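Cross-check.
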Amino acid sequence: MDKTSVRWAVFFANIGHTLTHLMMLLYPTVVLTLEKQLALSYGQLMWLSVPGLVLYGFAALPAGWLGDRWSAEHMMVLFFIGSGIAGIATGLAQGPLGIACGLAAIGFFGAIYHPVGTAWLVRHAENRGRMLGWNGIFGSIGVGAGPIVGATLSALYGWRMAFLVPGVIALLLGGALALLVRGGSVVAAKTDVKPQAEPASAEVKRVFALLSITMLSTGIIFQAFTSVLPKLFEVRLAHLTAGGLVGTGGMVSLVFALSAAFQFFGGMAADRFSMKRIYLLCWAIQVPVLFLAVRLFDLPLFVAALFCFSLTAISTPTENALLAHYTPSRWRATAFGAKFLLSLGVSALGVPLVATVYDRSGDFVWLFAILAVLAALVAATALFLPRERRAAPSPVAAAAAE
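Predicted model, tokenized:
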């Protein structure tokens, strides 16, 4: 395959991962400004984001199917351009209904990225775990940038600019990718750069059934934790944030940014060690930390949050590598679509969980108890995953490595 096409594919897959998470995580920080402007409670405003979060997951399955059956490259063009238009529409929205519709559109077009972009990247990867680790870092940059970008643009220019600026950037990236695809600089890959033996049908079914439980649970934990973190830090990190919006957004972004590098180590470990063991340890360790975090304030809380997100960062490329390892290449985007339907769609229940628990109790005790139980479920389920068999490198791959 042409190396220039591979480089462009990797670039747009990585930058797309940054963009999709950035745009999806603008609202949990922007909502702190809207709380004062729209005369609605925090819980009521958080409900406006639920349709977009549901679509972000549920639209992933048909998006993955189209990526396998039509064109990954054209689906990625649609992702960038659609996300750009949706971001601009949200920034121009009038009232709660308009905001909810704009956020829903961001979720709908953003749903294309994970099934199509991840499968697109895997197809171009020689060292799958390492490539997924780097891709995870780019995603974490988006997760980390979302709160600080949302807070800074809202504080300086108003909440609308928090959506308008990323929307315009996404539109420009989509136009650039469309020109590259049309000019032949980005060409569809027909097979994996590094093929693997097809997994047995029974093993595929077993692993996907088990991962369905873990991916749903980890998705709820991630959705709830990322959504609640700005409010949690506003309430419990007052000495570190000075009670300001930018300070709160900055501390949230710092957690995401510092934990991002661990995705690279997770990817490297997935290439070298048992993926099952890495996955199991990451979630087993989180159980006591989540139970402990509910009683913490200020710097100890910040450290606990950073520790949890770092463990999640390590487990993410491992989870994706496990799914890719046990999925036939011709169905990979569809398989990732099913994954993200669970981990981003059904798991959007994490957001109303945050809203309901906080509005009813005014605290986060029960929320963290529920998240700890879910982490324990993930660890227990991971025990039943098979130990993956590593294929010996082919003579061609071995020669290329030398």
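The domain at 3-388 is CATH 1.20.1250.20 (Growth Hormone; Chain: A;). The chain has one domain: 3-388. Passed to J.P. for a second look.
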